[in-house]
Amino acid sequence: QVQLVESGGGLVQVGGSLRLSCVVSGRTSSMYSMAWFRQASGKEREFVAASSYRGGHTKYADSVKGRFTISRDNAKNTVYLQMNSLKPEDTAVYYCTIARSPGVVAVEYAEYEYGYWGQGTQVTVSS
Question: In the chain, what percentage of residues exceed pLDDT 70?
Answer without folding.
Answer: 100
